[in-house]
Amino acid sequence: MKRRGANLSIFGSFLFFALIAIVVTVAMFIFGYVNKKTDGDRTVIAVVMLLVIVFLSLLCTIGDLIRRRKTVDKPVEQILDATERIAAGDFSVRLPIMREYGKYNQYDCIMDNLNTMAEALRKSEVLKTDFISDVSHELKTPLTVIHSYATLLREEKDEQKREKYTVAVAEAASRLSVLIGNILQLNKLENQSVLPEKTVVKLDEKLAEVILTFEERIERKKVEFICDLQENIRVFTVESYLEIIFNNLVSNAVKFTNEGGRVEVKLKKEDENVVVTVKDTGVGISPEVGARIFDKFYQGDASHAKEGNGLGLALVKRAIDVLGGEISVQSKLGEGSTFTVKLKEVAPSEIG
Ligand SMILES: Nc1ncnc2c1ncn2[C@@H]1O[C@H](COP(=O)(O)OP(=O)(O)O)[C@@H](O)[C@H]1O
Ligand SMILES: [Mg+2]
After folding, report:
1. CB-based pocket (< 6 A), ligand 1
2. 3-state secondary structure labels for all residues of the chain
């Protein structure tokens, strides 16, 4: 459990008790002394005791005031000041942990938590601005292409050239549309507080359906395709997320495999898990690139940069995280890569 810090009010109550005990004891001693000296003169005793009690109470009150200023008012002021700055958007605020009386108390704990919150907000602010600048950069490239070819098209009379420019505009527009589609998907995956409805999906059939959409590309690229799918495997999941995951993995495998290479998709059961492997004999991934492939907009292979936008694996990772699955990669540069996805198999009780 996270430590909560020593309770200052318990400490304050003990102090209050000790002060009362001291005041009463001292007053009793003085009473005894005055009583003896004045042979029981009540008026003198009353006046002296009144003065003594007023003086001692004043002394204790001033002492307690000084203590409170240091241990309560000062941290509360600092906390108020920090919350005002955070509310105004300044996430660089950091509060000093003071450890009054050598102890980590509840104010220190609040300050610690505020520091953690401010750091988290600062990080998410950095991520947001980075994301906006990445998106703007990615949007700019196809937009520039569309703008310049559209301008050329207006003046060009040669039919062949016009055809070439039209194709370029159409390709850039389609890249733009894929990019925006991916950004919207990512935004949905990251901000969805309620998961879309889960259904029981026959994974072998879903995989076959996904693979079929790549048939033409596989044939065009002359890549050998091996498909080994164990039948009747069901998962209780969000079907559209499965499409995101396997579309991107198969698309990458085909894209990063050169002519004459091989792509293999396998589905099998392993204990309560369902394991899908997408293996290729493509360009492979170096450990440095491998460490970043799930980052948004990261593209490790410059020669294929135009065919994607670096959001594919970011989407895959988030979809798998939301579904509670696992993904791992094994790869060797120049030899190929294997992406392994583990999902939970549906329990018979979950099938309606
Ligand atoms: N099967 C693969 N073989 C080699 N490299 C891969 C493979 N899959 C992904 N990568 C690397 O991971 C990067 C990120 O992948 P992804 O997010 O799908 O972006 P994109 O496909 O748009 O480049 C790729 O640019 C590439 O460097
Ligand atoms: Mg991709």
Report:
1. 248, 252-253, 256, 280, 282-285, 289, 293, 298-301, 304, 308-314, 337
2. CCCCCECHHHHHHHHHHHHHHHHHHHHHHHHHHHHHHCCCCHHHHHHHHHHHHHHHHHHHHHHHHHHHHHHHHHHHHHHHHHHHHHHCCCCCCCCCCCCHHHCCEHHHHHHHHHHHHHHHHHHHHHHHHHHHHHHHHHHHHHHHHHHHHHHHHHHCCCHHHHHHHHHHHHHHHHHHHHHHHHHHHHHHHHHCCCCCCCEEEEHHHHHHHHHHCCHHHHHHHCCEEEEEECCCCEEEECHHHHHHHHHHHHHHHHHCCCCCCEEEEEEEEECCEEEEEEEECCCCCCHHHHCCCCCCCCCCCHHHHHHCCCCHHHHHHHHHHHHCCEEEEEEECCCEEEEEEEEECCCHHHCC
